[in-house]
Amino acid sequence: MSADAIDLLAPGLVADPHPALHALRARDPVHWSARHQAWLVSRHDDVSAAFRDPRLSNDRVGSIFGASERDTVEARILSHWMEFQDPPRHTRLRALVSKAFTPRVVESLRPRVIELVDELLGDIAATPRCDLVAAFAHPLPASVIAEMLGVPAEDRVLFRGWSDDILGLVFGSGGSERFERARKGFAELDAYFRALLEARRSAPRDDLLTALVAAEERGDALSRDEIVGTCVLLLFGGHETTTNLLASSVWLLDRHPAERERLRREPALLASAIEELLRFEGPSKMMVREVRAPLTLRERRLEPGQRVFLLQCAANRDPEIFADPDRLDLARRPNPHLGFGFGVHYCLGAPLARLEAQVAIAALLARFPGLRVLEEAPSWRPTLLSRGLAKLAVDAGSPTRP
Predict the structure, then answer these.
(1) What is the pairing mode between strands 56-57 and 287-291?
(2) What sign does the dihedral 295-299-302-307 (CA atoms) show?
(3) What is the structure's pLDDT at 325?
(4) How far apart are CA 306 and CA 299, in angstroms?
(5) Can you give the pLDDT at residue 78?
(6) Which residues partner with 372 through β-bridges?
(7) Which residues pair with 389 in a beta bridge?
(8) What is the spatial distance between Cα 113 and Cα 265, in angstroms, rounded to a whole number?
(9) Is the peptide bond before 334 cis (omega within 30 degrees of 0)?
(10) What are the start-end ranges of the H helices in 127-223?
């Protein structure tokens, strides 16, 4: 396949993008894609440098929506996501939320994560043939972030549908119907969180939503729209990435039984194993930036207004950085993967995602040593930015004692 023929949403590349990206990285690491109308940047050093380059902006909501769409609910919510902001606005929004995601606060959540994992594994023991995404990989992180925000337990079932509705617009999947589904999902999320905010004003609780309301009332320059946008971002980003990480990790360990057995024999490898799973098939396939000022990268001239795709999935298998990059090595050190991004937009929820993955994978392997994936070619979601399984049929087998 020629570089000009690369379509990142083609079925073959959705199923396995790595052979095409290996060839692209070797032949044309800063490649203009006429199909995607974007620069494809694929080498690790270029991607990591680009994450820190202020000439490449994350403030790109205006380029997502046409002039007639910029006053819509979805445009308003996305315009208040810190993910789509540059400093200093990004710095202010992140500072108001970051205290809830420090390593110390996240570690305090470990007992509750363990409790949730045990509950979900108990359900799997009763129905060992299941879709692991629906039964485990989604409900665990969704429950954790919903509890942090203060979403009532009875409402959490609503968020899977809303998340699916907005996923296509946020992560860039094909299909003309994605805007209508996204518009509906964003409108319902907006109404839901505005009602919940009013409830917290009259009856504060010990949750993140109350903390955001208190910040607004202290005059921290946090508007109502910013609170709603932040809540939607945290709810969506707080579970979507970890859901993908958990499901792909189980799939990878099934495909690499020697490494799975190695991890079972050597539980001290757990932390490095999660980092390698993030590198090898991480949930973030790429991040998008927009050129704000002219720059030259590997003799290519990037002009203002052009889009740049920072291909983390290609950078994370760069042979200049990683020895034998297509080999899964759960003890790999060092492992400077870019799975959570780099620089000021490094994933705020990375400590929580790591904790959830470590607890979940360790417990799953211990409780169901005979777990096996039932499909040779699982279904990957056809999205530009993320890498996640739509479902993963498994037979968990007989459980050991909890």
Answers:
(1) antiparallel
(2) negative
(3) 98
(4) 16
(5) 85
(6) 395
(7) 380
(8) 23
(9) yes
(10) 132, 139-149, 157-171, 178-202, 208-217
Peptide bond between residue 88 and the one before it cis (omega within 30 degrees of 0): yes
Note the pLDDT of residue 327: 98
Which residues of 255-388 form beta strands (DSSP E)? 287-291, 295-297, 300-302, 307-310, 372-373
Query: DSSP 3-state assignment of 57?
Result: strand
DSSP alpha helices (H): ranges in 307-348?
A: 312-315
CA distance 168 to 191: 20
CA angle 163, 165, 170 (to 5 degrees): 75
Per the CB < 8 A criterion, the answer to whether 40 and 24 are in contact is yes
Q: What is the side-by-side order of every strand in the sheet holding 56-57? A: 30-33, 38-41, 307-310, 287-291, 56-57
How large is the C-alpha radius of gyration of the chain? Answer: 21
CA distance 402 to 400: 6
Q: Are 151 and 157 in contact (CB under 8 A)?
A: no
- Residue 296 — φ and ψ, nearest 5°? -115, 130
Tokens of 142: 């969704």
With a CB cutoff of 8 Å and minimum separation 6, the contacts of 118 are 363, 402
Q: Mean pLDDT, the chain, as a whole number? A: 90
The segments of the chain whose pLDDT lies below 70 read: 1-4, 62-70, 168, 171-178, 216-221, 401-402
CB 386 within 8 A of CB 244: yes
Token match 């199923």: residue?
15
Q: What is the reported pLDDT for 176?
A: 58
Which residues have CB under 8 Å from 331's CB, separation 6+? Answer: 262, 269, 272, 273, 276
- Please give the full DSSP string across 374-388, using - where no structure is assigned: --SS--B--BSSB--
pLDDT tens for residues 276-295? Answer: 999 999 999 999 999 999 99
| CATH 3.40.109.30 is the classification of domain 3-395 | no
